[in-house]
Amino acid sequence: MAENEIDADIILRVVSKTFSLDIHNIHFHKNYKVSGISGNEYNFSDIVTSDTDIIAIKIAHEISSINDLITFNSQCMDAQIDKKILISDKELNENEVNICHAFKIQLIDLKNYQNGYSKKSHFGIAELDSKLSGGLRPGYVYLVSGKTGSGKTTLSSTFLATGAKYGEKGLMVLTDTFPDLFLGNIRTMNIGFAKFYEDKMIEIMEISDQIRVMKSDISNGKTDFRKFITKIVNELKKIIIQKDIKRVVIDPITLLLIPDDDYINIFLNSLAMKNVTTIITSGLRNSDLSMFGIEEYYTTGIIKLDYEMVDEKLSRTLKIVKMRGSVFDSSPSNFKITSNGIIMTDKNVIINTSADNDDIFKNIR
Amino acid sequence: MNKMMHVSINIMSILSMIFIIVGITSSLYSIIVLKNGTIFDYSFTLWFWFATVFFGIQSMSYFLSFRRSSYKYKSTIESSYNMLLRDKVAILVPIYNEEPDMVTNNLIAIYSNNGNIAEVYVLDDSTKGDSSYIIDLCNKLGMKYVHRINRRGYKAGALNDVLKTLDVDYVSVIDIDQMPSPDFIRETVSLLDKNPDVGFVQVPQIYVNTDSGVLAEIAQAQQFIFYEILTEGKSVTGTLFSCGSNVIYRLKALKSVNYFDESNIVEDIATSVNLIGNGWRGLYYNKKLVFGRAPVTMEGYINQQWRWMSGSLALMPKIFKKIIFNKKYTFKERLDWFATSTWYTFGWFYLIFLLAPVMDIFGIKVLTINPTLYFFAWMPYTILLMTTFILSHIDKGAQLKFVFYNMAANLLIFPLSISVTISVLRKKMKPFTTARTGGKVPWHKFWPQFLIMFLLILSLIILIYKHSIYNDITAFWAFFQFFLLLPIFFLNKTPKKSSIDENSFKNFEG
Predict the structure, then answer these.
(1) Is B42 exposed, middle or buried (0-12, 13-18, 19+ CB in 10 A)?
(2) Please, are residues A329 and A303 in contact by the beta-carbon 8 Å criterion?
(3) How far is A75 from chain B (nearest CA, A)?
(4) Distance of alpha carbon A73 from alpha carbon A105, whole angstroms
(5) Which of A242, A183, A171 is closest to A207 using CA atoms?
(6) Which chain B residues have any C-beta within 8 angstroms of a chain A C-beta?
(7) Between chains, do A239 and B206 touch, taking CB under 8 Å as contact?
(8) Residue-range domains of chain B with CATH
């Protein structure tokens, strides 16, 4: 995803509001091909479809001259698309504005849709990002869950490496692996993680014995769990603030938790931090999503990884189980872990809206 | 704690209170009818009687608080959590010449635990050092930085200057050595929402560095009696005062008393008196939601105690005028405030107990006490009172060493109480200092404690040598008080690093 690309979520909101369409019944497509009545086929970079309509989207930064607008309009006319939107993410000149009025292209100021909305943190895996309408919303905590060997560490390392590629510093907190062992493993994959680590774009931290001592003090009734949460969350946040970190992975979260509903609620809520996207990983024990069967209730989104043997071959699947405040595709997809990292093997992913959110944008905490 | 034990403490606390009243009145009667002493005997006996009255009232207030805390407090609190807080709360963090590392750590803690639900204002009144690192941090985290060029009204003045510009429902004050837990604001706001007559909600201060030395443990023991027993009782009676930090106020209530009282260095108690006078009450929420640091150096501890003592004592006339002499308040409210406002004069009354064995050597005795009276009245009364005091602590979950530390702490700082009382009477106040400053105190500054210890040991030897029942009893008290003063040798030490300062995460440098 390019640096200045607009999130699918925002485009869907723009279309929904401009043409009074139900946001749950419209779909966003990248590089969508439409045949014109002239017989020509046009490749539109951004298209939104509903059951009855096609809406063509043009983003202002893609326009270098008025000719681009004239071409866009003529392609739309030939493709019989009469709902056209120009989303302005830059200042438009007078001629451009006049042309839009003349061609009945709806002019939308991006700023009106960006208030309180941070750009999403993408994984750099096109199909997964597409399923997530662009990626994960910063400021929240997400759970990547799956049994051992399902690819949690690989997926979350890819997430950090992609962030680093776009200048977002990452923090990997390893709670049950030796960092050198982890680095050795991740080096076998061509995702650039080790290089970003060497360039200090990704920090690796491990936990000290202090955590075990404090956890045992809590179980012996010597200390209150809030003291523990306050201490470790504060230490983490201090590192995040001082090193200007934007993406955090805690792999796995289990060692920092106590199987208590109140504890996990407070801990996971307090991990959330403005403009920082946090992923926690968890194996499975008490539920099919986590170790304690509690973690999944207090995260904003869940990506579940799984695998099974089919005809003596490993078949891996990824499923977005929950993603509050975001449009997402909940259908399972197949993927492979290769020397180039995670490769999705399903094609033609389109964005569906999830059925479990009545008003997705009111659902944002 | 089994039910039988609980019932026993209940009965003992009632008996103790009866004994206090009987003891005070009967000894007063004895002073009046006895006619066989010298002027020294009479002066000493009267002073001793005043000490008995003083500790009697304090104990009475303590036992009443304990009973309210045990039987009534829980029903006054309903725990809940408020999710919808946007634009409702402001957090004010006063700073004055603090250590940069602590400021950075705790500002991050305050911001990260509450910054997403409340606007944080950093009120930096520092006069020394470079504050640019605080400004940078505030810019980075989106906190408001306020710096004054004058120090009008000290902490209260700094708070008031910002309060007058705010348009929120609630304002929390958090000192820079405090770390609020993530649910502090949400839980306390919910109590203010539910109780419109409550002007402020106070939560306890939990010291997290008690493993840094005996001094920190002693400070924690003193906090224990205050936050586990006295404040719960005060919350029930409506006599709770705010402690200036770990507190959230209703802005409307503060406005009604023209904001914080700038005329006293313990602006928290002064403002609470004003709030109570205006019909507001305070609610104590006994949940571990804010973590602070005990003073770890003797100088820091003395600074803290000096400020609390001098501020509270300077406030005594105001409390007497506004509450104790005001018929609008009930007897139990007035008794509670009397105990609170007079507490820090304790040094004068401990002094008479400490001097009693020495006086005895010189033949100056408490006239009201003879062996018969002692065995049948005074001794059972003392044993009952101390046992109830210890058991009430244990009932509240205190370790035994906390009870010892608590008894020792007040005895150890008796000279401070005497010296503060004199300073307040002479209207000589020291400049504002915090508990976080300073280091070890030169040993010669403890001369009053060493002198008293020497006199206690000396009288102990002489009294045993002179052997009689009366002398043996006095010798026992000499030894007991000497024993309580012993921690003086362990307090003035360089603190150990607390485990709270150990890092939970290690950076990997592969």
Answers:
(1) middle
(2) no
(3) 46
(4) 8
(5) A171
(6) 104-105, 108-109, 112-113, 115-116, 140-141, 179-183, 206, 208, 288-289, 291, 499-500, 502-508, 510
(7) no
(8) 3-71+339-491 (no CATH), 80-296 (3.90.550.10)
Q: Report the alpha-carbon distance of residue B242 to residue B175 in Å, rounded.
A: 13
Q: How far is CA B401 from CA B221, B404, B407, in A?
A: 9, 5, 10
CA distance A81 to A74: 10
Q: What are phi and psi of A143, to 5 degrees?
A: -110, 130
Instruction: Report all structural domains of chain A as residue ranges with CATH numbers, in order of start.
Output: 8-114 (3.40.1350.10), 126-344 (3.40.50.300)
* Whether the Cβ atoms of residue B113 and residue A270 lie closer than 8 Å to each other: yes
| ipTM rounded to 2 decimals | 0.83
Give A-chain residues touching B108 at CB under 8 angstroms.
234, 237-238, 241
Kindly list the residues from chain A whose CB atom is less than 8 angstroms away from the CB atom of residue B507. 203-205
Beta strand B179-180 pairing with B247-250: unpaired
Looking at this protein, which amino acid is placed at residue B109? A
Cα Dmax for chain A: 79
CA A69 to chain centre: 31
Encoded tokens for B305: 């105690």
B287 and B171 in contact (C-beta within 8 Å)? no
Contact between A329 and A320 (Cβ < 8 Å):
yes
Tokens 């520092």 found at = B126
**Mind listing the pLDDT tens digit of every residue in chain B (510 residues)?**
567 887 888 888 888 888 888 878 877 777 777 667 788 888 888 898 899 889 989 999 999 999 999 999 999 888 777 666 667 899 999 998 888 888 998 998 888 777 778 899 999 998 888 889 999 999 988 899 999 888 888 899 999 999 999 999 999 999 998 999 888 998 999 999 999 999 999 999 999 999 999 999 999 999 999 999 999 999 999 999 999 899 999 999 999 999 999 988 788 999 999 999 999 999 999 999 999 989 999 998 998 899 899 989 999 999 999 999 999 999 999 999 999 999 999 999 999 999 999 988 888 877 666 667 777 777 788 888 899 999 999 998 888 898 999 999 999 999 999 999 999 999 876 665 666 666 788 888 999 999 999 999 999 999 999 988 888 888 999 999 999 999 999 888 888 888 888 889 988 876
Distance CA A137, CA B234 (A): 47
Diameter over CA atoms, chain B: 88
**Count of beta carbons in the 10 Å neighbourhood of residue B25:** 10
Whose structure tokens read 């006319």?
A77
CA distance A43 to A30: 9
| Phi (first) and psi of residue B268, to 5 degrees | -65, -50
The residues, any chain, with a CB within 8 Å of residue B459's CB and separated by 6 or more, are: B357, B358, B360, B361, B474, B475, B478
Among candidate residues B342, B390, B345, B64, the one with its CA nearest the CA of residue B230: B64
Say if residues B133 and B139 touch (Cβ distance below 8 Å). Answer: no
Token duo for residue A257? 């938790």
CA distance B112 to chain A (A): 7
